[in-house]
Amino acid sequence: MSAASKSSQTTKNVVLALALLWSVVSLIIIVVWATSPDMKSSAKCRADLQKMTENLEATKVSWRKDRVALEEQVEEGRAELAREKASYQLLQALLNTTNATLEECRQENLLLNRNISTLQEEVEQLHQTEANLTARIRLQEDHIEVLQQNLTQAFHQTESCFSLKEAAQSQMLAAQSQTRACQSSQHFLQKQLQKCKLVESEAPQQTQQDTSAALPLAGVSALTLLICSSLHLIT
Q1: Are 172 and 235 in contact (CB under 8 A)?
Q2: Residues 6+ apart with CB under 8 A from 33
Q3: pLDDT higher than threshold 60 for residue 91
Q4: What 3 state SS string does 44-73 have?
Q5: Nearest partner of 48 among 61, 62, 36, judged by Cα
Q6: Average pLDDT for residues 123-144, to the nearest whole number?
Q7: Global confidence as pTM
Q8: pLDDT per residue over 196-223, tens digit each?
Q9: Are 186 and 220 in contact (CB under 8 A)?
Q10: Which of 111, 218, 221, 235 could join 175 in a cystine, given CB atoms 3.0 to 4.6 angstroms apart?
Q11: Contacts of 156 (CB under 8 A, 6+ apart)
Q12: At what angle do helices 42-202 and 211-234 cross, to 10 degrees?
């Protein structure tokens, strides 16, 4: 801004100096023309002086116009410089804001990189944990298979035990039925034996005659008692 002001001021001074020099030269020429005895007549001199005066006035008017134009240009330059300065300040503010934003982005990138590194470490830990859990699951599956096999064997053994129990109960019921049959036979034989004793006491004479018939009946009774005793021992 100071350099433009100095340049415009120098231009203004140069124009003013040229105008002043032109005025002085014009006056000198007029004076010399008027005082010279060998020159034109006084009327001609006055006419020339009038012309020179008019030219001087025209020059002054032109100089004033040029001065006003130069001042306007200087003002426009100052306004343009002010606008450029404001624009520069705005750009500087934007640049500072951009630099601050870039710094924030850089810090954020650093933070994101650290977070990414942390996440990668956590992912590695999760992969390791997954591998460990997979191994444990496989071991648990093997253990479950063993338990299932043991459970199947225990189920079959239980079924076998129930079958054996049912068979034993059937055998026990059969033995009990045989025992009751033997007891019934024994009771019947005891009644027959008592009848035989009663008959022997009433008819001693007939004992000798019936000896041959009583011997087979006694053998049958003894055999029946032997069978019942054997069945009882088995149960």
Answers
A1: yes
A2: 39, 40, 45, 48, 49
A3: yes
A4: HHHHHHHHHHHHHHHHHHHHHHHHHHHHHH
A5: 36
A6: 90
A7: 0.34
A8: 877 777 755 554 444 444 444 444 455 5
A9: no
A10: 235
A11: none
A12: 160
Q: Which residues of 127-163 are buried (b: 16+ CB within 10 A; e: fewer)?
A: eeeeeeeeeeeeeeeeeeeeeeeeeeeeeeeeeeeee
Contact between residue 190 and residue 232 where contact means Cβ atoms under 8 Å apart: no
pLDDT at 132: 92
Amino acid (one-letter) located at 132 = N
* Identity at 50, one-letter amino acid code: Q
Residues 196 and 162: their CA atoms lie apart, in Å, by 50
**Would the pLDDT of 83 be above 80?**
yes
* DSSP line for the chain: -HHHHHHHHHHHHHHHHHHHHHHHHHHHHHHHHHH-TTS--HHHHHHHHHHHHHHHHHHHHHHHHHHHHHHHHHHHHHHHHHHHHHHHHHHHHHHHHHHHHHHHHHHHHHHHHHHHHHHHHHHHHHHHHHHHHHHHHHHHHHHHHHHHHHHHHHHHHHHHHHHHHHHHHHHHHHHHHHHHHHHHHHHHHHHHHHHHHHHHHH-SHHHHHTHHHHHHHHHHHHHHHHHHHHHHHH-
For tokens 């997979």, name the residue: 134
Contacts of 224 (CB under 8 A, 6+ apart): 182, 185, 186, 189
